[in-house]
Amino acid sequence: MIGSLGQPTRVGIIGAGHGGQALLTAFSGMPGVQIIGIFGSNPEAPGLQQAAAMGVPVFATACRGPVGPTG
């Protein structure tokens, strides 16, 4: 997946549970794709553990309540 300017397609993954882990595995096997990071709210999520082992930047924080306007 090389972009129109000949650069790799940069992908960030939001969610690091089993679905995020599946995306991490799929994208890491695609030529021309660069995974720039993965975010998960649970530091113990399987996708974060796998990403860290692969050298992919990992971002984790716990969200407490809604973010942004609530009404």
Q: Give the proportion of residues in helices.
A: 25-40%
Mind telling me the C-alpha Rg?
Answer: 14 Å
Mean pLDDT across all residues, rounded? 86
Q: Helix- and strand-based class? A: alpha/beta
Q: Which series of helices and strands comes N to C? A: EHEHE
**Secondary structure tally: strands:** 3
Percentage of residues in strands: 15-25%
Lateral arrangement of strands in the main beta sheet: 1-2-3
- Could you tell me how far the N terminus lies from the C terminus, measured between alpha carbons in angstroms? 41 Å
The residue ranges in which pLDDT falls below 50 over 5 or more consecutive positions are none
The main sheet comes to: 3 strands, parallel
DSSP summary: helix tally: 2
Shape: elongated
How would you characterize this protein structure?
The protein is of the alpha/beta class and 71 residues long. The chain has 2 helices and 3 strands. The chain has helices at residues 18-28, 46-54; strands spanning 9-14, 33-40, 58-60. It has a 3-stranded parallel beta sheet with strand order 1-2-3, covered by helices on one side. Strand 1 (9-14), helix 1 and strand 2 (33-40) form a beta-alpha-beta unit. Helix 1 (18-28) runs parallel beside helix 2 (46-54).
